[in-house]
Protein backbone atom coordinates (compact mmCIF):
# COMPACT_ATOMS: atom_id res chain seq x y z
CA UNK A 1 0.00 0.00 0.00
CA UNK A 2 1.26 3.49 -0.79
CA UNK A 3 2.38 5.71 2.09
CA UNK A 4 -0.16 8.45 1.33
CA UNK A 5 -2.97 5.86 1.62
CA UNK A 6 -1.58 4.58 4.93
CA UNK A 7 -1.41 8.17 6.24
CA UNK A 8 -5.03 8.63 5.12
CA UNK A 9 -5.99 5.58 7.19
CA UNK A 10 -4.33 7.17 10.23
CA UNK A 11 -6.19 10.42 9.58
CA UNK A 12 -9.46 8.48 9.32
CA UNK A 13 -8.53 6.75 12.62
CA UNK A 14 -8.84 3.42 10.84
CA UNK A 15 -7.02 0.69 12.80
CA UNK A 16 -5.94 -0.92 9.52
CA UNK A 17 -3.33 1.85 9.40
CA UNK A 18 -1.29 0.00 12.02
CA UNK A 19 -1.62 -3.31 10.20
CA UNK A 20 -0.57 -1.74 6.90
CA UNK A 21 2.33 0.06 8.59
CA UNK A 22 3.48 -3.18 10.19
CA UNK A 23 3.20 -5.05 6.88
CA UNK A 24 5.19 -2.42 5.00
CA UNK A 25 7.70 -1.24 7.61
CA UNK A 26 7.72 -3.88 10.36
CA UNK A 27 11.03 -5.40 9.31
CA UNK A 28 12.64 -1.95 9.14
CA UNK A 29 11.26 -0.90 12.53
CA UNK A 30 12.64 -4.10 14.08
CA UNK A 31 16.04 -3.49 12.44
CA UNK A 32 16.29 0.11 13.70
CA UNK A 33 15.19 -0.96 17.18
CA UNK A 34 17.46 -4.00 17.38
CA UNK A 35 20.51 -2.00 16.28
CA UNK A 36 20.12 0.07 19.44
CA UNK A 37 18.68 -2.44 21.93
CA UNK A 38 20.38 -5.72 20.88
CA UNK A 39 17.67 -7.73 22.61
CA UNK A 40 14.65 -9.47 21.04
CA UNK A 41 12.19 -8.79 23.88
CA UNK A 42 13.11 -5.11 24.13
CA UNK A 43 12.95 -4.83 20.33
CA UNK A 44 9.41 -6.26 20.35
CA UNK A 45 8.39 -3.75 23.04
CA UNK A 46 9.93 -0.97 20.99
CA UNK A 47 8.13 -2.07 17.84
CA UNK A 48 4.73 -2.10 19.57
CA UNK A 49 5.37 1.28 21.19
CA UNK A 50 6.44 2.67 17.82
CA UNK A 51 3.10 1.72 16.24
CA UNK A 52 1.18 3.23 19.16
CA UNK A 53 3.26 6.42 18.99
CA UNK A 54 2.68 6.64 15.25
CA UNK A 55 -1.06 6.23 15.83
CA UNK A 56 -0.97 9.05 18.40
CA UNK A 57 1.17 11.31 16.21
CA UNK A 58 -0.87 11.09 12.97
CA UNK A 59 -2.88 13.31 13.03
CA UNK A 60 -1.90 16.07 13.67
CA UNK A 61 1.45 15.26 12.05
CA UNK A 62 1.47 14.87 8.28
CA UNK A 63 4.81 13.25 7.47
CA UNK A 64 6.34 13.82 4.04
CA UNK A 65 8.06 10.45 4.31
CA UNK A 66 6.23 7.84 6.36
CA UNK A 67 9.32 5.64 6.32
CA UNK A 68 11.55 8.34 7.81
CA UNK A 69 8.83 9.35 10.28
CA UNK A 70 8.43 5.80 11.59
CA UNK A 71 12.18 5.22 11.73
CA UNK A 72 12.62 8.36 13.80
CA UNK A 73 9.91 7.24 16.21
CA UNK A 74 11.46 3.76 16.43
CA UNK A 75 14.93 5.21 17.07
CA UNK A 76 13.72 7.60 19.77
CA UNK A 77 11.62 4.88 21.40
CA UNK A 78 14.58 2.48 21.42
CA UNK A 79 16.79 5.14 23.00
CA UNK A 80 14.14 5.80 25.66
CA UNK A 81 13.91 2.07 26.42
CA UNK A 82 17.70 1.82 26.57
CA UNK A 83 17.88 4.75 29.00
CA UNK A 84 15.18 3.19 31.17
CA UNK A 85 17.02 -0.12 31.21
CA UNK A 86 20.35 1.59 31.90
CA UNK A 87 18.96 3.21 35.03
CA UNK A 88 18.20 -0.24 36.39
CA UNK A 89 21.61 -1.75 35.71
CA UNK A 90 24.13 -1.92 38.50
CA UNK A 91 26.95 -0.82 36.20
CA UNK A 92 26.37 1.82 33.63
CA UNK A 93 28.90 2.15 30.83
CA UNK A 94 28.60 5.92 30.99
CA UNK A 95 29.69 5.87 34.61
CA UNK A 96 32.80 3.97 33.57
CA UNK A 97 33.60 6.52 30.88
CA UNK A 98 32.95 9.39 33.27
CA UNK A 99 35.95 8.24 35.33
CA UNK A 100 38.13 8.79 32.28
CA UNK A 101 36.48 11.85 30.75
CA UNK A 102 35.40 13.62 33.90
CA UNK A 103 31.89 14.75 34.68
CA UNK A 104 31.68 17.38 31.96
CA UNK A 105 33.38 18.08 28.68
CA UNK A 106 35.71 20.96 28.07
CA UNK A 107 33.52 24.07 27.48
CA UNK A 108 35.43 24.81 24.26
CA UNK A 109 34.58 21.33 22.95
CA UNK A 110 30.91 21.82 23.77
CA UNK A 111 30.84 25.15 21.91
CA UNK A 112 32.62 23.66 18.90
CA UNK A 113 30.23 20.68 18.82
CA UNK A 114 27.22 23.00 18.88
CA UNK A 115 28.69 25.20 16.14
CA UNK A 116 29.36 22.14 14.00
CA UNK A 117 25.77 20.97 14.51
CA UNK A 118 24.48 24.37 13.37
CA UNK A 119 26.54 24.23 10.18
CA UNK A 120 25.46 20.65 9.45
CA UNK A 121 21.80 21.63 9.84
CA UNK A 122 22.32 24.64 7.57
CA UNK A 123 23.94 22.45 4.94
CA UNK A 124 21.19 19.85 5.10
CA UNK A 125 18.63 22.58 4.42
CA UNK A 126 20.39 23.31 1.11
CA UNK A 127 20.13 19.81 -0.35
CA UNK A 128 17.22 17.90 -1.85
CA UNK A 129 14.70 16.44 0.58
CA UNK A 130 15.40 12.83 -0.41
CA UNK A 131 19.14 13.28 0.02
CA UNK A 132 18.56 14.88 3.42
CA UNK A 133 16.31 11.97 4.44
CA UNK A 134 18.91 9.42 3.34
CA UNK A 135 21.61 11.29 5.30
CA UNK A 136 19.46 11.47 8.44
CA UNK A 137 18.39 7.84 8.21
CA UNK A 138 22.03 6.77 8.00
CA UNK A 139 23.61 9.08 10.55
CA UNK A 140 20.72 9.87 12.89
CA UNK A 141 18.75 6.61 12.82
CA UNK A 142 21.84 4.40 12.36
CA UNK A 143 20.15 2.53 9.53
CA UNK A 144 22.08 0.26 7.20
CA UNK A 145 22.61 1.29 3.59
CA UNK A 146 20.50 -1.70 2.52
CA UNK A 147 17.58 -0.75 4.76
CA UNK A 148 17.65 2.82 3.47
CA UNK A 149 17.68 1.49 -0.08
CA UNK A 150 14.62 -0.64 0.70
CA UNK A 151 12.86 2.45 1.99
CA UNK A 152 13.47 4.43 -1.20
CA UNK A 153 13.50 1.62 -3.75
CA UNK A 154 17.23 2.10 -4.39
CA UNK A 155 20.11 -0.31 -4.51
CA UNK A 156 22.60 -0.28 -1.64
CA UNK A 157 25.22 1.02 -4.10
CA UNK A 158 23.00 3.94 -5.08
CA UNK A 159 22.47 4.86 -1.42
CA UNK A 160 26.19 4.54 -0.69
CA UNK A 161 27.01 6.79 -3.65
CA UNK A 162 24.46 9.37 -2.54
CA UNK A 163 25.86 9.39 0.98
CA UNK A 164 29.38 9.81 -0.39
CA UNK A 165 28.27 12.82 -2.49
CA UNK A 166 26.42 14.33 0.46
CA UNK A 167 29.46 13.94 2.73
CA UNK A 168 31.68 15.55 0.08
CA UNK A 169 29.22 18.42 -0.22
CA UNK A 170 29.15 18.81 3.55
CA UNK A 171 32.94 18.82 3.69
CA UNK A 172 33.08 21.58 1.04
CA UNK A 173 30.36 23.56 2.81
CA UNK A 174 32.23 23.41 6.12
CA UNK A 175 35.51 24.47 4.48
CA UNK A 176 33.74 27.39 2.76
CA UNK A 177 32.55 28.48 6.18
CA UNK A 178 36.01 28.35 7.72
CA UNK A 179 35.73 25.04 9.53
CA UNK A 180 38.66 22.69 9.06
CA UNK A 181 37.67 19.06 8.72
Properties at a glance:
181 residues, globular, mainly alpha, 9 helices, Arc Repressor Mutant, subunit A, Rna Polymerase Sigma Factor, Chain: A
Can you tell me about this structure?
77% of the residues lie in helices and 0% in strands. The protein is mainly alpha-helical. The protein folds into two domains: 1-103, RNA polymerase sigma factor, region 2, helix turn helix motif (Rna Polymerase Sigma Factor, Chain: A), CATH 1.10.1740; 105-181, Arc Repressor Mutant, subunit A (Orthogonal Bundle), CATH 1.10.10.10. Helix 2 crosses helix 4 (66-88), helix 7 (129-139) packs across helix 9 and helix 8 crosses helix 9.
Question: Quick recap of the structure?
Answer:
The protein is an all-alpha fold. The chain has helices at about 5-10, 15-35, 40-55, 65-90, 95-100, 105-125, 130-140, 145-150, 155-175. The chain is built from 9 helices and no strands.
Strand content: under 5%
Low-confidence stretches: 90-102
User: What's the helix count?
Assistant: 9
Rg of Cα set:
19 Å
Shape: globular
Structurally, the number of domains stands at 2
CATH arch. level architecture of the largest domain: Orthogonal Bundle
Spell the H/E element sequence.
Answer: HHHHHHHHH
N-to-C CA distance: 43 Å
Say which CATH homologous superfamily of the largest domain is assigned.
Answer: RNA polymerase sigma factor, region 2, helix turn helix motif
Q: On the 0-100 scale, what is the average pLDDT? A: 83
Q: In CATH's first tier, which class of the largest domain applies?
A: Mainly Alpha
Strand tally, please? 0
Oligomer class: single chain
Amino acid sequence: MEDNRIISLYNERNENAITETKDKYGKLVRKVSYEILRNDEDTEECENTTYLSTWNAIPPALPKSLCAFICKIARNTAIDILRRLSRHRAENIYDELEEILGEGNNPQDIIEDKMMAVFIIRYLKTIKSRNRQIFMMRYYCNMSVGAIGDCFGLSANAVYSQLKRTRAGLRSYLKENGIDV
